[in-house]
């Protein structure tokens, strides 16, 4: 039986494993675990391990009826997706089935004023000024994104330690972002969450006791996520490097044997 848990874990992407005879009971919830625990880890119900800010934040926004709202960018997209890079900044965007465009404007920053001024921007003109102030040197081509977006949300990117570990509990575990939040620049977050669920389910079906299954799942997950998180952070550095365009293009060409990825420049 699958049902939502109550209390604080209602906000966590966690699985609580109980038993009705031989039938496991799984209680699940969403990916807000780290937001719930961010203010005070003393209130965190599962682990004191705290993810760290990677120095990059995303502005998530949606443009409805994009064909008419942002015609030049709609034509540039051609029904697909794109990412623009430069100056330790990125803009990634893609079309959705309903004709809207979802975009993420990423910036490498530790300045709280960037978030404050975005959240205080109350109209189109202020959002466009924010764009030019924080994406210096970028073309006016991107202005319509900030003019026509119906909502803009600031999302700081977090990462869990690559060597994280906790003592297994007999009837609760974490999967997905709650277990190993990381930036999106390897495209593996959803893949790893689904694999978490698959591995855990296999152990729950093959082991006699839920606690044994949880311990086996977590050992596999910790081992797998160490290298995956390391690779993700290499990519995150690359996307916000001074030579990001050169290196990201080389990365995609390397997938078809075109060339090797150049090493990071010395700071």
Describe the structure.
The structure is a single chain. The chain is α+β, with helices and mostly antiparallel strands and 267 residues long. The chain has 2 domains: 2-51 and 160-239, no CATH class; 53-158, D-Amino Acid Oxidase, Chain A, domain 2 (2-Layer Sandwich), CATH 3.30.9.30. 39% of the residues lie in helices and 23% in strands. The protein has 10 helices and 9 strands. It has helices at residues 33-37, 66-69, 71-77, 112-120, 124-134, 143-148, 177-180, 189-206, 210-239, 244-254, and strands spanning 2-4, 14-20, 23-28, 52-63, 81-86, 89-95, 101-108, 151-159, 172-174. It has a 5-stranded antiparallel beta sheet with strand order 5-6-7-4-8. Strands 1-3-2-9 form a 4-stranded mixed beta sheet. α8 runs antiparallel to α9. The chain is elongated. The termini are far apart. The model is unreliable at 1-13, 19-23 and 26-43 (pLDDT under 50).
Break the fold down into its secondary structure elements and pairings:
Blueprint: E1 2-4, E2 14-20, E3 23-28, H1 33-37, E4 52-63, H2 66-69, H3 71-77, E5 81-86, E6 89-95, E7 101-108, H4 112-120, H5 124-134, H6 143-148, E8 151-159, E9 172-174, H7 177-180, H8 189-206, H9 210-239, H10 244-254
Parallel strand pairs: 1-3
Antiparallel strand pairs: 2-3, 2-9, 4-7, 4-8, 5-6, 6-7
Helix pairs in contact: 8-9
- Counting DSSP H or I runs of 4 or more residues, the number of helices is 10
Distance between the termini: 53 Å
What ranges have pLDDT less than 50 throughout 5 or more consecutive residues? Answer: 1-13, 19-23, 26-43
The major β-sheet equals: 5 strands, antiparallel
| Whole-angstrom Rg | 21 Å
Secondary structure: number of strands: 9
Averaged pLDDT: 84
How many separate structural domains? 2
Residues in helix, %: 25-40%
Tell me what portion of residues adopts beta-strand conformation.
15-25%
- Give the strand line-up of the largest sheet: 5-6-7-4-8
